[in-house]
Queue: 3 jobs
Job 1
Amino acid sequence: MTDLPRMSLSGIVLGAPDARELAAFYRRLLGWDVTQDEPDWVKLVPPGGGPGLSFQTEAVYVRPTWPAGPGDQQMMIHLDIEVDDLDAAGAHAAAAGATLAGFQPQDDVRVYLDPAGHPFCLFLAD
């Protein structure tokens, strides 16, 4: 596949009812820096470089349901976050404003919901 144009993932965008509010949550959670801050768009980047995480205000936002059932708004994306201590990371996530999801599909993973309802998973490194 040598004929492919050069492409690199520069970020992931999460929709939210309030971009700044959700960005503030992820800034508390991850400790990343803000590189763009507009009324309806905020971008965070990790200190060591790599793809960023952006937030866009959506005029009509429907909170996803975890896990989704028939007719429920399904998640469009979820984030996997590797941690070295599941209990400490979970306590930090809750203190930052996350909610532990009622359904936990695996013993070694913790599913949390951010303030806009996007699920994210904390998991232990192998």
Note: The radius of gyration is 15 Å.
Job 2
Amino acid sequence: MTDLLTDDQITHALRDLPGWQPRPGSLVRDVTAPDFLAGIALVGDVAQAAEQMNHHPDIDIRWTTVTFSLTTHARGGVTDNDVELARRISEIVDQRFGD
């Protein structure tokens, strides 16, 4: 099982992941889609990536704002799996919105 990352490790990892913020026990990013359906399509793409990784985000959809929250529930905090999923979500956002 993957070890929990320290605060310093999280800070270092987030240097290459603009838009992601550390929160107690998680990584969080808000993405603004151009419209509601674009946000839903984004969620679908992220769901596919999450299934491939067998690591799933918490997702909140509020009109055009999609919030992704990543934590490794089994470990009670942030692990390399969360950082890797954050990286993949960022790639998907860039592909969809050029963000």
Note: The longest strand covers residues 26-32.
Job 3
Amino acid sequence: MRGIVKRFPGTRALDHAELTVRGGETHCLLGENGAGKSTLMKVLAGSHQPDEGEILIDGERVSLSSPQQGLAAGIAVIYQELDLVPDLTVAQNLLLGRAPTRGPIVRGRRRIELARAAIARVGGDFPVTAKVRDLPIAAQQLTAIAKALTSDARIIVMDEPSATLGEEDLRKVFALVRSLTAEGRSVIYISHRMDEVMEIGDRATVLRDGRTVAVRELAETTAAELVSDMIGESRELVGTVDRPRPEGPPLLEIRSVHREGLIDVQGIEVRAGEVVGLAGLGGAGRTTLLRSLFGDGHAAVSLRLAGAEVRLHSPAAAVRAGLALVPESRKEQGLMLGLSVGRNAGIASLGRPPWLAPRRAGRRASADALSGLGVRHASADQLVGQLSGGNQQKVVLAKWISRGGLRVLLLDEPTRGLDVGAKADLYRQVRKLADEGVAVLLASSELTELTANTDLVWVLYEGRNVACFDPRTTAERDIAHTVITGTSPDSGATP
């Protein structure tokens, strides 16, 4: 892949990125969140078309305008968000579109035989007649890997395959990777775990801000050098919040949030008026933590609110206690795009489904919040789906402000997809709420935003909170080091 450029509205995700993979090697692709890894792989798979640059396979230039063309060229991608159909069986998923037939009839018994062989090759021992949705997540991951192998791909991309696998299953995947490369196939392995990279990889390409910044032979490289490549040498302490840190007893005390094999967080506190950041790589547990606090999960939660023990078994109970969640996906989880701005912003105040409430009730309940947040809209009757991303996010905030009684605000990737101006505007609104006494817990993949807009930054790594930093006194690169490795430099971390 040469000189790959990919632009999206308001951002350049790839800036003349380069990637060269040899036949029969395991090539690790590294970079922080937002470095461009997934976008580069989607270009390789044919899901995105590059604005500039070229792809060559065996020295021949190829044009991949769809995932189907990518598969035809011998490229299979196993995405972290598994590309499986939940209501089909394992066998049906593995041979979807390629099932053995006799005339127009699928040979079901033969399909099961082929599926069993594919699952056995990846070390799976679960029935291929089971529906995918009924399998544990590790078995689903192995199914996705087996599906890629049934296509006879020559280039196989594994995007964070270990995120959902235990040690035993990971050993099986490593053995499979070695057998694939021994056959002359190439594996592109994306991971943030340096121990995996050093064990399984032959070479590594490091992306930073959409650019290729290093290509290293792993036998001649240390994990520390790779981390330095990922972080960069120029990122030092950035401008941070300039107001005094709130004092007094914590308003929110997270004593423990635990779910076996997924999350084990203890001892996070947020005072009234304080903004505490949650940093971490994808899969570190930030979203799981916030959803669990909001009563939307299966974790065991122990928390105190204003010194009193509370049990929040549902989102409704969390709302009654004064908690509010702005979810990662505002379009899927935060808004009803087919309803008006007024009805969306007033939904938490109406006490009934918004489509059953009179329009004027939503307008009346949300008018002050929409005005205070500066939401740009033609009228309260305008469909919320017609607004810009920044204004949609403000409507999600307005929903909670208009209800009143807000004590704790949980924000999950609140600036994702927003332009620079919309981001700055949103953080001003969050700071205003904090100044009014709201406790804010904010998760973001953008470490620079966290260090500039929070009072403290907790780092989550593989489901655990491993260190707490003061962004006023700690260099951003030191926090980034902990985000990537899970270990703290000797510079201001509080275990």
Note: Residues 234-239 have pLDDT under 50 and may be disordered.
